[in-house]
Amino acid sequence: MSALEADIEAPDLEAQSREAIQKGSKSFAAAAALFDAQTRADAEMLYAWCRHCDDVIDGQTLGHGMSPVADAPARLAALYAQTRSALAGETPTDPVFAAFQTVALRRGIPERYALDMIDGFSMDVEGRTYETLEDLLAYCWGVAGVVGAMMAIVMGVPASDLATLRRAQDLGLGFQLTNIARDIVEDARNDRVYVPRAWLAELNLPVEQLTDPARRADVAALARRLVEAAEPYYASARWGLRDLPVRSAWAIAAARGVYRQIGLDVVSAGPAAWDERVVVSGRMKAWRALEGGIVALRSATLDRLGAVPERPAMWSKI
């Protein structure tokens, strides 16, 4: 037994990671329950590390309660160092990095993907602004698109299968554009503005007015544009399901349906979308999970009878 195994037993890592996902993302936790046992454990351990890195930079706990961080550059440097150390096989002292090391080494997650995720958080530390949608998508890659690629590898997709990883990337991009649409006002209150500045200029909407209730109709128009921008990525991601095991395809199809529903609900609510946080009801989540099962079965059967459509000419890092 190694020193790591003696200090931090794998079941403890899995239990702590499962707790993190259940508190940090009820939607993803519900989808992850559809995985087989090993894939679920690995996906939850990867999620726990992603969640931890985000929390460290945003001064929050399990995705809640964002607050200013005075030592963000030092925190960022520590994340890079701890991640490189874990990937090099050195013994982590932090259970989150021990969990990440376990799944990264078992599944062969490339170092460049792990570091690309932290590069995404570095954009927040730098206070990066995004002039165009293409600029924003480069950020979305770091904090979500690359997470989709890593999750696909956890599900058994070879790191060399770039075609399937591009579809997984697309799902992450769709997720992040949806999150940005839902959280425009909350993010602006925390001095985070992800909406392309060119879009704000078109509406003559200064950054400082994003939180002004009098401009909610304009904010709703921006959210609709973000949700519409996400749609081609959700459509592309659907064609990656056929290359996953059926249970994994079901889990991802369910998550895809739930997150896409968030965007649809934001658009449907219009200016009222920021009166309270938009969440998907339990009944709708159940429906999207059922629908995901049907989509997964179709992907494993009928979709295999024909050729996969070419991925549209969209932004891609992979």
From TrEMBL:
As cofactor, the record names: ATP
Task: Give the transmembrane ranges.
Answer: 136-157
Coiled-coil zones: none
Keyword tags = Carotenoid biosynthesis, Membrane, Transferase, Transmembrane, Transmembrane helix
GO MF annotations, alphabetized: geranylgeranyl diphosphate synthase activity; squalene synthase [NAD(P)H] activity
Which pathway does the record list? Carotenoid biosynthesis; phytoene biosynthesis
Biological-process GO terms, alphabetical: carotenoid biosynthetic process
Q: Does the keyword Transferase apply?
A: yes
Q: Is the keyword Transmembrane helix assigned to this protein?
A: yes
Q: Which family does it belong to?
A: Belongs to the phytoene/squalene synthase family.
Protein name as catalogued: Phytoene synthase
Organism this protein belongs to: Caulobacter zeae
Taxonomic path: Bacteria, Pseudomonadati, Pseudomonadota, Alphaproteobacteria, Caulobacterales
